[in-house]
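Quick question, first post here. What does this chain look like in 3D?
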Amino acid sequence: MTAQAEFAVDANADQDYSDANDSAFTDFQQLTIYDTDAPSADRTFSSGSQLADSLVYSGQTVTVDVDGENLNRGDDVVLRQSTGSGSSTPAQTLTVSDSLYVTFDTSSLETSDYFLSGGDLNRSTTEFEIVEQSISAEFGAGSVVNDGTTVDLSVASDLRNDYDATVTVPGFAKADFAQAFSGISEGDVEQNDDGEYFITVSDIEATSPHTLNFDGVAAGNYTFEVDVTDTTATDTATIEVTQAQDAEATFVTGTVEQQRGDIATFNVSLTSANTANITIGSDSAGYVADLTVTDNNGDGYVEFKANTYTMGANRGDMQGNDAYYVADDSGDTVAVNDESTLPAPITTGTYQTTVRASGVSNAQDIGQLYLRQGSINSQNIWTAPGTVAQADVIADGPLTQDDTIASGDYAVHEFSASGIYGAIDAYNGSTVEQKFINASEDGAVSLSIQQTAATVGQNREAKVINVSTALQQGNATVALDAANDTFYVVSDVDMLPYDDGRSLETGDAYNATFTVTSATQLVSEDQSVSAEYSVVEETTELTYEGDQIEIANADGQTISGTTTLADGTQVTIRVQSQQTPGEGFIKSAKQLTVEDGQFSGTMNFSDTAVDSTFTVSVTEVATGGELVTGVSGMIVESTGTDTTEQTTEQTTEQTTEQTTEQTTEQTTEQTTEQTTEQTTEDTGGNGGDDTTEDDGSSGGGVPGFGVGIALVAVLGAALLALRE
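> Answer (accepted):
Ran it through. Tokens below.
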């Protein structure tokens, strides 16, 4: 409200009448002048309606112009706290000032909704909220060297953008403030009641982060106390200032080895420093890179990568000079100060590396980067259940090496190769698949999948899968495992697109060929690896003899089957009665895992009636799809054993093995006893002296054994051969 002089009539002023000169005098009224300036406050509102829906921060003083709100000087206005459901409670009683303002302090008030009540002021026209402001103050690194190295101080508040703050640093002198903060002079520094120096920064968040320079500041730990001037918001940030001569930088690994064209990893250890200078190469090696790394997360280490394919290069669709970088989530940085330009990828050989903490004159550690020639070695074909999420196949599996892929499952191409991962990563793309597509379109690498001649129909051309389209559509994915010189391409064989619009047919066979071309300048001529796989129909069958399955009314009954689905697929066997002289039944063997193309489940049929009929179904767990349905069976009388007359090949084999082992043990034991007794009788109790030589071998027996032991061994071998 604009300041102005207000003239008002005092109704209680004395009246003076005079008849001098026989003249009549009018009433004389006393005049009072009121100052209409707004009282000093952190927040000023021109009316109650302007206050409505505002955010007021705890600690602020607030003044509101109530002129025109049917209030007079000296009237009471109540500040009320809303308590919900239309109710409220008085918080403060305010008095309308001579200048027609009410003022209140929020320091002692809870965070809540409030409103003014009095005159025309009410909840609907003045309700506002008191909130507590919070701020965060944080340094970009835990330490800084006092050699001119800079570090950022960030200050932020979620609820507020425009505010002033004081910065107090115990232990700082006026000169330290002037050195650390750009634009601050010693005359701007104030001193509080505790004798500590502080500065006031206007609109502190507007220019955040603040870059501080501690050149010449005494080494030590300093706590920066940031306090908002008009609220209770406060936070602290601590920084360690170290002497330049105490700073040290070393390589965690002295020699870094990698294939030319791949990505090398360097790790630098920092002590009493948060930045270091690194040199890779030399003039004599024909390549030099000057780097600066910064430890922004304060852990004392900086790990950075070097793409040996793009070192010194800027070619085509690639990232160019971004050959050096850190992981996105590390918070650290690496900057290229200078780098040689190379016409081709850096050659194999050894390149010296040196490191020193920033501000230190000489190298503090020496290492080397050793680059070998990469190679394209082999391709293996694996399969995985189609029920697994495609993106999780490599990480979670299960994978089975198999070049026969059932329709609906995944074909997994495993490539053993080195020296290509930097080349793929160099291409633009937010995903590995997009990088692979761009590298393929640029002619650096290629993956072709084409139908084999043996399965091409008469007078037909071979089907060609469009790998790039498959990757774009998400029907194929790429997974890189550069640490193990391996990468994978996973494809859903049922969903792959073909160049001519044709589709997959069971019985098709395909040749997959991966090629690294000479266009990469990593190889002098194209290098390729190939492998074939075929696609078969998904089939699942139960294993039994005769026209139907027969199961004994006993426990431990096994039903088995075979499937072309990938190992690791889970199925459930369900047996449901159809006609029975007893009670009906439903039996299940759940979540059975396919292994070596087989599955089996064991159930208890001891409570079922003989001559009951049933049907068997097999369901895939993940999809709920029925793989087998309506196979008939009958309950037969138990023979008293734990297995039925109708068993699977697997169960029969296990039973045969158990029986053979028992028979072998019994026969061997009996034969040993008989042979021992016979030998004893023949030798008169001294059989060993006449037949055993000093070297422990027998004349006509097995070398190294006596006659009795040799005979047992021969019999055991004969029984084993009979068993097999």
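The first strand starts at residue 5 and ends at 10.
The chain has ten helices and 47 strands.
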